[in-house]
Amino acid sequence: MTPLEAGPPPSGESAHFRALEQLYGSAPINRLFRSRLTIPSAGHSIIDFDVDESQFHAAGAVHGTVYFKMLDDAAFYAANSLVTDRFLLTTAFNLLFTRPIGPGRLRAEGRWISGKRRVYVAEASLIDQDGEEVGRGTGTFMRSQFPLSSLPGYRAANG
């Protein structure tokens, strides 16, 4: 496909979403996970990821750190999709584990709930490959002192 066939580069809200997706991919922690973030619209995020036995606890199911990481990331990016100037920070996060997870493909879906100034609240659901919810979380996020434009992963997506 030539650059002309690919269409114009994203701009405005779409460019912000693509830059956040790039930022997610650039985070060193995400080298440990086979995952991909998609932001389809403001206040909504999706992380598709795979888990295997390397992420299990001693009883043979996925460790709770994976639940937390994916739920927190999905809620965080749903909230940060509404903020174009600052990186948000998680200030609190509550988890509900509803079922153990085995190996396979999972999806974390984040949704913004409230807040548009300093503090944002977002929730996320963790869905297994059968479409069943296996976990849920709600987080509180606040603006940091870090401009998004100062973060190399975000800047790379904006040229």
TrEMBL record:
Domain Thioesterase: 60-134
Gene Ontology molecular function terms on file: thiolester hydrolase activity
Domain of life: Bacteria
Coiled-coil zones: none
One Pfam family it belongs to: 4HBT
CDD domains (alphabetical): PaaI_thioesterase
Protein name in UniProt: Uncharacterized protein (TIGR00369 family)
Lineage: Bacteria, Pseudomonadati, Pseudomonadota, Alphaproteobacteria, Sphingomonadales
